[in-house]
Write a structure and sequence with these properties.
The chain contains 21 helices and no strands. It has 463 residues and is an all-alpha fold. The protein is globular and about 60 Å long.
Length: 463
């Protein structure tokens, strides 16, 4: 009898030490794997749709550009809904929207229908489960190690690139693009709707950005005074949380129930905050610097003298390096600060192309190897670090709204960046001016990040 009681106590103690944030991490990793799959398979479907409908490259690419525009316009609204309704409602709905969009697109008889089904509906679905919502749902669970955890979860993007881009090419060749769309829509819906609907959960407690995340909450102190047993359990849990680097979880029985109004600050207070708009500016300029060259990279390498296949392999290798680099970047931001790592990383990203521009002769392999290492180490760091910074500055209850506006900046860059790069190439006949403009945007993004930090510190001192 004593043994049975002891075993039950051990099981209860083990459960109390389980941090549910790891479940949210796995869900976030899966969501970003889907996002990486949708984003990186578009280049495959672009060529297939262009041939299938017999339209120009500009007209066909506008389908995917429309998805970026819709994402930019819908992100703030999606962020507000994420704060009010919660991820357990929003993410399964996104999975169903993606299923509808991809299946409806597969029955399109003319390309203009793709603008509606894929450009609008799929654009909303993809944006809902993108990095901005991952930041809002995952970062509050790990206030002390959010950079590390966001970096680990962001590895889902290159994982999706490695899995779904080749799969898109295989299915399109073997079954046709219509069945490829139907299979992708079903896979994405299952990966998003089922696990998020069953396991997604709100963070147990909002940790204010100006409070030590290891400090016990006022609610925990009240509970401690009420019950000596609960106090001892709280101390044990707190000690375990400090040892594991995770936030202190509240017992389920003592988690305060809050209404949507109490959970979500007024939208006007978020919109009036200059710190939020500096984050948006950081994201717009940083993304513009990347998007100016992203779509044109293969052509850029070909103009430098390399073959098309080698250029494609180089871009794939960048994604492979990024798979291991993103968690390291997240750890570095926790240790050395968001602004310092952002400055170094964005500078390296801007300078990586120089090795090919000035040192690539079309035959030597080593300039491409250097580019792969430098670009892979810095791929995707803009969204990762901006998201971690937003989680540092804003409470959980408004983080979805803030990241929605930040995602609006990214979506605008996805739409405008490739177009501006193409226009400059048509005028100049090369990408030299586009690279200079890309570097200027990158520099502006670094300045905006430091301005965000200054304004955030000033706001905390004022409080």
């Amino acid at each position: 009898m004593f043994s049975g009681v002891y075993n039950r106590q051990m099981i209860a103690a083990a459960r109390s030490r389980l941090h549910y944030g790891w479940v949210i991490f796995v869900l976030s990793l899966g969501n970003l794997t889907v996002e990486g799959g949708t984003k990186n398979s578009e280049s495959v479907y672009f060529h297939v749709l262009k041939d299938a409908f017999g339209r120009s490259a500009t007209y066909t690419s506008a389908v995917f550009g429309t998805a970026g525009l819709v994402g930019a316009l819908s992100a703030p609204v999606l962020g507000i809904l994420l704060d009010r309704w919660g991820a357990r409602v929003i993410f399964p709905l996104a999975g169903l929207v993606i299923l509808f969009a991809w299946w409806a697109s597969s029955y399109a008889t003319d390309l203009w229908q793709m603008f509606i089904f894929y450009g609008i509906f799929a654009g909303i679905g993809h944006t809902t489960i993108s990095s901005f919502s991952m930041t809002a749902t995952l970062a509050p669970w790990f206030p002390r190690t959010r950079g590390r955890m966001l970096g680990l979860a962001d590895s889902g993007n290159p994982i999706g690139q490695a899995i779904f881009a080749p799969l898109a090419g295989y299915l399109s060749a073997a079954l046709g693009w219509r069945w490829a769309y139907r299979i992708f829509g079903l896979i994405f819906a299952v990966m998003i709707a089922l696990p998020n609907g069953l396991l997604q959960r709100r963070p147990p407690e909002s940790v204010p950005p100006n409070r030590d995340p290891d400090a016990p909450s006022p609610h925990s102190r009240d509970t401690s005074r009420h019950s000596h047993h609960t106090s001892r359990h709280s101390r044990d849990t707190s000690r375990h949380s400090r040892e594991s680097g995770n936030p202190e979880p509240l017992p389920a029985a003592t988690t305060p129930r809050r209404t949507a109004h109490q959970r979500t600050p007024a939208l006007s207070s978020v919109v009036r905050d200059p710190t939020m708009w500096l984050l948006v500016l950081t994201r717009i300029t940083g993304s513009a610097g990347v998007q100016l060259l992203r779509v044109h990279l293969v052509t850029f390498f070909v103009l430098a003298g390399y073959s098309t296949q080698l250029a494609a392999n180089t871009i794939g290798a960048v994604g492979l390096v990024s798979l291991f680099a993103r968690p390291m970047v997240g750890i570095a931001t926790d240790r050395w600060g968001r602004e310092s790592v952002y400055t170094v990383g964005m500078s390296i990203a801007a300078g990586s192309v120089i090795f090919v521009v000035y040192l690539g002769d079309g035959t030597s392999f080593w300039p491409l190897a250097v580019y792969v290492m430098l670009a892979g180490l810095t791929d995707g760091i803009s969204g990762l670090i901006v998201g971690a910074k937003a989680a540092d500055l804003f409470p959980t209850e408004s983080l979805g709204t803030v990241m929605g506006f930040v995602e609006m900046g990214r979506g605008s860059a996805i739409l405008l960046g490739p177009v501006i790069g193409g226009i400059m190439f048509d005028i100049q006949g090369n990408y030299v001016q586009a690279f200079i403009l890309s570097a200027a945007f990158t520099f502006a993004s670094v300045c905006a990040m430091w301005a965000t930090d200054f304004m955030g510190r000033r706001r905390q001192r004022a409080r």
